[in-house]
């Protein structure tokens, strides 16, 4: 059985920042942490801790590269400001 993925401590702040601007946010976990709908566009987000210790794993990078190759908007975010910039 698969363990629940660890949620980054900054994820609630990021989710709230996005919701405050009117985005709809789904906590999906797979393939990345968040699915964000804003102004008619969808963006997948991978949340990483702002201390820069949170790095994208090799499997996450493969997923990100595959998604970007087919035109999916993907962002790696560490705080609410980065998340808002990614959907603006």
Automatic annotation (TrEMBL):
Any stretches that span the bilayer, and where are they?
A: 21-38
Which key words are in the record?
Membrane, Transmembrane, Transmembrane helix
Q: Which GO terms describe its molecular function?
A: nucleic acid binding
Query: Which InterPro entries does its entry note?
Result: tRNA_endonuc-like_dom_sf
Name of the featured protein: VRR-NUC domain-containing protein
- Which species is this UniProt entry from? marine sediment metagenome
